[in-house]
Amino acid sequence: MISETVKRGPFSHINWKLWRSVILALLILAAILFFNARNPAETRAVLRSTLRYAVPLILGALCGIFCERAGIVNIGIEGQMLLSAFTSYMTNAWTGNLMFSLFVGMVTGSIVGLFLAFLSIKLKLNQVIGGTVINILAAGITGYFYQVGTTTKGKFASIPLGPLADIPIIGPLLFNNPPITYIAIVLVIVSQIVLFNTRWGLRTRAVGEHPRAADTLGVDVFKIRYLNVLIGGVMAGLAGAFLTLEGVGLFERGMTNGRGFIALAVMIFGKWNPISSAMAALFFGFANAMQTQLQFMGIQIAHQFVGMIPYLLTIIVVSGFVGRSRAPAAEGIPYEKE
Question: What is the helix (H) or strand (E) element at residue 177, kind and residue range?
Answer without folding.
Answer: strand 176-177
